[in-house]
Specification:
The chain is α/β, with parallel strands linked by helices and 964 residues long. The protein has five domains: 69 residues, Complement Module, domain 1, CATH 2.10.70; 215 residues, Response regulator (Rossmann fold), CATH 3.40.50; 175 residues, Response regulator (Rossmann fold, 3-Layer(aba) Sandwich), CATH 3.40.50; 248 residues, Rhodopsin 7-helix transmembrane proteins (Rhopdopsin 7-helix transmembrane proteins, Up-down Bundle); 37 residues, no CATH class. It has an eight-stranded mixed β-sheet with strand order 19-18-20-21-22-25-26-27, sandwiched between helices. Strands 14-13-15-16-17 form a five-stranded parallel β-sheet, with helices on both faces. The longest helix has 52 residues. The C terminus is likely disordered. One of its GO terms (cellular component) is G protein-coupled receptor heterodimeric complex. Belongs to the G-protein coupled receptor 3 family. GABA-B receptor subfamily. Keywords: Cell membrane, Coiled coil, Disulfide bond, G-protein coupled receptor, Glycoprotein, Membrane, Phosphoprotein, Postsynaptic cell membrane, Receptor, Signal, Sushi, Synapse, Transducer, Transmembrane, Transmembrane helix.
């Protein structure tokens, strides 16, 4: 069901496919949903039944139950009867099957059949009858007839003829009875149904002009028909007087030189609309119009007027037959105050779509034309698929501007009828038909007054024409003099009619008041009048709104700045404040103990710079957290500069002084060739300070250039609009202030690049010098540790804060905590060990005092070394003692064995008295065999290599190592 199969055209007709070429039409089998086809007929045939069909989502076409046929038209001459009435059945164009019933006016007799039928051949089945004057009324024959050719739309976009034709006939009857108005003439109306269709009207105009009798004036109804008739009328020197045309395009004397209308121009609505827009403080409106000239020109006029009033038309939509897309576009573009310009049938289509799109309710106000029937939205319409309840819901609260067409005062005018008497007579003529369902009921007073305006103008011309030797009955389509006289009389018309005071402006348009009404609870209530000639608005104050008052003309966008979380700011500020306090303590400690040799050997001035730099960096946390909540926008650029300078100079001082130490340690102590000479070389402090000065100078210079060339200013970042909680017709536009400059990324790239290189170089140098010890800069290892931490934190934080720049809390937290941690780590690593050492060892004396007491110039490093050597010596002595005990034990075992041997030998010698005595082995303490410390151990072995003693105990090379 997403497409419809093509359907066959009616017999003697075809189908117009919009937007398709001949080749596509031949090959196409199915058409998409919402596609419209239009039937067209050949020759002198007209379509009866639906003219346009639309493809529905269920795969069928609209109105398939109604057949569309192309039928021949029968001659229209049969549809009017001089001195009689013609009643067609059914209403509409005279085609096959149409039956006409004839009757004569009082005083006339019908000669011929009283009915005729149109056949398939396009011919009437009987000759046209005529109405002959009754012999008794022959005295009336002395009156000359003046014929008015009128087009009354009985159907179509505005079926105004349904009430306007009876009203015009009422006026004619009264005029013809009056003896003081055109006493020698009788006005007669020859009228056709134009169906409010310019094409149909063209045929009828031809019939009017080219069939007898000659018409002295033409009276069209619809704007589209009047445009055609009034433009052609000049060629036949005819005055055109319309009772139902509101198109502003008709107010053009060059194009329509003989045109007048008792219906005011639609542009008369526009001053009223502008007045209401201003009253309700709307500066942005939207429009939706049917693409016909009347509405296009009304809209052009409205556009000029709202522009003068400083009001903008933000959305302008139009449609030909199907408003669905136009209504969707209004919804999508957030239209709120919508001016709708379309005929009544299209109004139903529009509001059915409005219901579907939910483009109604307390957020929206619709401005419609006020000349629809009062129950226009309740009328069953096969072209829409909305219920009466849905339509009633969608139209509730709309405002109409309507020309005052019925005199609100009880004044008897030219016709000697008050407006209420006229209405009562019209109602009886309509035969009890519901006025709300009768097209043109509101405009009926205008048709009534149009006939009176014409009669009074023709009456005014009788004298001047007589003076020139002309008579009204002499009029023909070539006689300009009579036309000029009628024009002059019409132009100066001024009388009280049932529609109010009748007067024409220079363009032939009626001047009138505007009535403002609002649909409240399903019925129209008067809420005011506007007199555009005086600019006077009479307001009743009974307008009702679904919300608390008139809605806003657009979604109210509240700009809301995003500010930093104050809890976060305070928390980080406390840490920063404590950090500054710690920095002051460290700085005070360093200055106070600057004479202590241990502090002197750590280059205290550089450490002081580090402490000051750390405090400056911490101070930058405060301006980092200051935003529009704390300072005015004018002072914000100053805060931006503070951030930049404090952070830049703080980094240069703190990191620069640490980098300088590492740099000089590396420079002095890593050249292997001259290492010994360099150790003795004196490190000049001014070189260290100069290095820091250079780094600081580079920073100051770059910041100054940045500030002069491309100073920081506020930029405001806009985020996606957010809907607040609750059913509020507002959107929040979140905004965030940034410190920025035109080429911010370039400057940041330069600064980050330079600082990044310093950080990387710092890491490298710290790694290279980690094993070096020097008495001139005794804390370079601590400095290296601080550099590692600072470098890692900075290298992570810089890119992260750039990425998170749109999230103020996260960005501030990252940046400020990185500063706080860097500073804390630096201060703790650099200063706390010094404090601890001085406190635990009591080394508070200065260098001079230390020299006086000890006479020793041993530096702290030597003391450290001696302590380490003492520890090592104790461990070695312990090992020696263990070894000596083992040796002693072994010597005891040896002496015991030797004693055993000697006893054996003694017994042998006793048996051999003459043998020499054996060598005596003295039984001394085995320890005496151990060589004294510092002497070489025995190298000869008195025992055989395979003896157990020799293998395990005799070699004392290990002892030798222990004593070295």
């Amino acid at each position: 069901g997403s497409s419809c199969a093509i359907i066959r055209p009616p017999r003697d007709g075809g189908i117009r496919y919009r937007g398709l070429t001949q080749e596509q039409i031949r090959s196409v089998q199915v058409l998409p949903v919402d596609y419209e086809i239009e039937y067209i007929c050949r020759g002198n045939r007209v379509i009866v039944g639906p003219k346009v069909r639309k493809c529905l989502p269920n795969g069928t076409w609209t109105d398939l139950s109604q057949r569309s046929r192309c039928l021949l038209l029968c001659p229209r001459v049969w549809t009017s009867l001089e001195n009689g009435r013609v009643s067609p059945w059914p209403l509409g164009p005279p085609v096959e099957g149409t039956v006409l019933h004839y009757s004569c006016l009082p005083g006339f007799i019908l000669m011929g059949r009283n009915s005729t039928q149109c056949n398939k051949m396009g011919k009437w089945d009987t000759p046209k009858p005529v109405c002959h004057l009754h012999p008794a009324d022959s005295q009336l024959n002395s009156k000359k007839k003046l014929y008015i050719g009128a087009l009354f739309p009985m159907s179509g976009g505005w079926p105004g003829g349904q009430a306007c034709l009876p009203a015009a006939q009422m006026a004619l009857k009264l005029v013809n009875k009056r003896t003081d108005i055109l006493p020698d003439y009788e006005l007669e109306l020859i009228h056709y149904d134009s169906m409010c269709d310019p094409g149909e009207a063209t045929k009828l105009l031809y019939d009017l002009l080219y069939t007898e009798p000659i018409k002295i004036v033409l009276m069209p109804g619809c704007s589209s028909v009047s445009t055609l008739v009034a433009e052609a009328a000049r060629m036949w020197n005819l005055i055109v007087l319309s009772y139902g045309s509101s198109s502003p395009a008709l107010s053009n004397r060059q194009r329509f030189p003989t045109f007048f209308r008792t219906h005011p121009s639609a542009t008369l609505h526009n001053p009223t609309r502008v007045q209401l827009f201003q009253k309700w403080k709307w500066t942005k409106i939207a429009t939706i119009q049917q693409t016909t000239e009347v509405f296009t020109s009304t809209l052009d006029d409205l556009e000029e007027r709202v522009k003068e009033a400083g009001i903008e038309i933000s959305v302008r939509q139009s449609f030909l037959t199907d408003p669905a897309v136009a209504v969707k576009n209004l919804k999508r573009q957030d239209a709120r105050i919508i001016v709708g310009l379309f005929y009544e049938t299209e109004a139903r289509k529009v509001f059915c779509e409005v219901y579907k799109e939910k483009l109604y309710g307390k957020k929206y106000v619709w401005f419609l034309i006020g000349w629809y029937a009062d129950n226009w939205f309740k009328i069953k319409d096969p072209s829409i698929n909305c219920t009466v309840e849905q339509m009633t819901e969608a139209v509730e609260g709309h405002v109409t501007t309507e020309i005052v067409m019925l005199n609100p005062e009880t004044v008897r005018g030219a016709s000697n009828l008050t407006s209420q008497e006229f209405l009562a007579q019209l109602m009886s003529k309509l035969g009890g038909k519901n006025p709300e369902e009768t097209g043109g009921f509101q405009e009926a007073p205008l048709a009534y007054d149009a006939v009176w305006a014409l009669a009074l103008a023709l009456n005014k011309t009788v004298g001047p024409l007589k003076a020139k030797g002309h008579r009204l009955e002499d009029f023909n389509y070539n006689n300009r003099d009579i036309t000029a006289e009628i024009y002059r009389a019409m132009n100066t018309s001024s009388f009280e009619g049932v529609s109010g005071h009748v007067v024409f402006d220079a363009q032939g348009s009626r001047m009138a008041w505007t009535l403002i009404e609002q649909l409240q609870g399903g019925s129209y209530k008067k809420i005011g009048y506007y007199d555009s000639t005086k600019g006077n608005l009479s307001w009743y104050g009974n307008d009702k709104w679904i919300g608390s008052g008139p809605p806003a003309d657009q979604t109210v966008v509240i700009e809301e700045f995003r500010y930093l979380s104050q809890k976060l700011f305070v928390s980080v500020s406390v840490f920063a404040g404590l950090g500054i306090l710690l920095g002051i303590i460290c700085l005070t400690f360093n200055i106070y103990n600057s004479n202590v040799r241990y502090i002197q050997n750590s280059q205290p001035y550089l450490n002081n710079m580090t402490a000051v730099g750390c405090m400056m960096a911490l101070a930058a946390v405060f301006p980092l957290g200051i935003d529009g909540l704390h300072v005015h926008r004018r002072q914000f650029p100053v805060v931006c500069q503070f951030r930049l300078w404090l952070l830049g100079l703080g980094f240069s001082l703190a990191y620069g002084s640490m980098f300088t130490k590492i740099w000089w340690v590396h420079t002095v102590f890593t050249k292997k060739d001259e290492k010994k000479d360099k150790r003795k070389q004196h490190l000049e402090p001014w070189k260290l300070y100069a290095t820091v000065g250079v780094l600081l100078g580079i920073d100051i210079l770059s910041l100054m250039i940045w500030q002069i060339v491309d100073p920081l200013h506020i930029t405001v970042e806009k985020f996606t609009r957010e809907a607040p909680k609750g059913d509020l017709d507002v959107l929040i536009q979140p905004l965030l202030e940034h410190c920025s400059s035109e080429k911010m990324n370039t400057w940041l790239g330069v600064v980050y690049g330079y600082k990044g290189l310093l950080l990387l170089l710092g890491i490298f140098l710290a790694y290279e010098t980690k094993s070096i010890s020097t008495e001139k800069i005794n804390d370079h290892r601590a400095v290296g540790m601080a550099i590692y931490n600072v470098a890692v934190l900075c290298m992570i934080t810089a890119p992260v804060t750039m990425i998170l720049s749109s999230q103020q809390d996260a960005s501030f937290a990252f940046a400020s905590l990185a500063i706080v941690f860097s500073v804390y780590i630096t201060l703790v690593v650099l200063f706390v060990p010094k404090m601890r050492r001085l406190i635990t060892r009591g080394e508070w004396q200065s260098d001079a005092q230390e020299t006086m007491k000890t006479g020793s110039s041993t530096n702290n490093n030597d003391e450290e070394k001696s302590r380490q050597l003492e520890r090592e010596n104790k461990e070695l002595q312990k090992i020696i003692q263990e070894k000596e005990e083992r040796v002693s034990e072994l010597r005891n075992q040896l002496s015991e064995r030797q004693a055993l041997r000697s006893r054996r030998r003694a017994s042998t010698v006793t048996s051999q008295n003459h043998s020499p005595p054996p060598l005596a082995i003295p039984q001394s303490d085995p320890r005496s065999l151990a060589p004294p410390p510092g002497y070489p151990a025995p190298t000869c072995d008195p025992h055989p290599p395979d003896s157990k003693i020799s293998r395990n105990n005799c070699h004392t090379s290990r002892l030798q190592l222990l004593y070295k």
